[in-house]
Amino acid sequence: MAETDLERFVEAPGRAEKIKEVRKMIDAKGIEYLYLQFVSVTGKIMGKGIPADHWESVAMKGFQLVYGATVNLFTDRAGNYLGYGPEAAELVGIPEPETFMQLPWAPQIGRFYCTLFRNREEKENPGGYLTSDCRGNLRRMHEDFQKKHGRSLRIGTEPEMMWLKFDENGKPKDGYSKPYCYHIDQFESLRPVSMQVIRYARKMGLDMIQGDHEDAPGQLELNWMFDDVLRNADRLTTYRQICAQVARENGIFACFMTKPFMGVSASGCHHNMSLWRGGEDQFVKCGNDEKDLPGMRDNYMYVKGGENTFMPDDDDPQMPGKEGLEAIGGVVHNLQALTAVGCSTVNSYRRLWDTGFWAPVFADWGFQNRTTGLRVSAPGRFEYRSVDSMVNPYLMGTTLLAAMDDGIDNKLDPGEPEERNIYEAIEQGKQVKKLPMSLGEALDFLENNEVVKRGMPGEMYRLFHEYKYDEYARFMSTVTDWDNDTYMECLP
């Protein structure tokens, strides 16, 4: 019988030594229980827990869970399970020892990210990679991109979110601070929260670099150093878990909903992108846990090696190099379909409709131009702005890789950078594609775009399409307060 993907993964060179290293760390740190987690199609963190005594066994055999967990085990409007029915097989999740991390707020618990596989007994492709595993897809697609183009994608995200108070009924309501952008006094009002997030983040391997109070009530942005696309996605996922925990400790609510309030800024999650080639990355320890052992890469940060191909290659410091322009040309040409991934909820489009708050709605690019969907935020990197706080960073990573691959293969020209306010440019006659302005419209663009769909291989596109069209249908079939306020007494 041919060796399966699962068997090759479990028996990879050096993995047995890493498993032993984890056992040493479990014993040294007094860890009693392990969280084995993966990420669903919507970015929700799923998984199982096991006693730490069983680490070696689960590291080799994995755990089983219904396929539908990758689609949140959620039902559609008719009550049918989305993606997979109850008759489907169970996936196999294999923990990655190099992602081991002790939870700083619960030191008796360790955490792993896992790669998902088809069941060993499946009749078709037994033990194959599970293509509804968005995280596994990102690793494999990035490896293929690196082999094909000799370049790696690095991303730094800017995760805005809001800290809210609970009302008398226990529901999240008002922001904890006032909506004053960059105001240090409002930043200070959330200091107990922000400093606890930063402490936990540093202990979990995030190299925190800066933060500020944003435009909306209770809105903070805390940033960490950019990194490999997969590692950055893991860190954004970890950051969300940290915020949820800090909120529990402080009796407030960590809100990643894109637009909970109209009339103030929404929460974006700009992606700053660059492509690198050559050079060796090195790891430097971050955090302050002296019990860390070598080989556990999440306890370390990158010292970036190689050459940034987005850097200018002539005398114009504002103009990216030729290779960067081709890659970003792919993003610009596919931006309407990419919006379905970057703005993935019904609520996302409240951000685009509430004008005056710098949310981009046009598929164009410029240097330091916040009115376009992409901008050169600094020499050597592009800021992709049409993405918000609800994004699944793994799907965003795979679809951006697909778009950049298209740009490089076909030498796509993004056009001249727009230096004008895009609205003034349009008034002066410029023809610019507009981004979709509803989830339904965005999903239609995605359905008709084969390039972006390549970033959702195997079953992933089917699951995303099914889940998100049902979400949009639920919205369209709901009578809201606005409907009643507007139409209840409009006739006769």
From TrEMBL:
Its cofactor is Mg(2+). SUPFAM superfamilies: Glutamine synthetase, N-terminal domain, Glutamine synthetase/guanido kinase. Residues 134-492 form the GS catalytic domain. Its EC number is 6.3.1.-. One of its GO terms (molecular function) is ligase activity. Pfam families: Gln-synt_C. Belongs to the glutamine synthetase family. PANTHER family: GAMMA-GLUTAMYLPUTRESCINE SYNTHETASE (PTHR43785), TYPE-1 GLUTAMINE SYNTHETASE 2 (PTHR43785:SF12). This is Glutamine synthetase family protein.
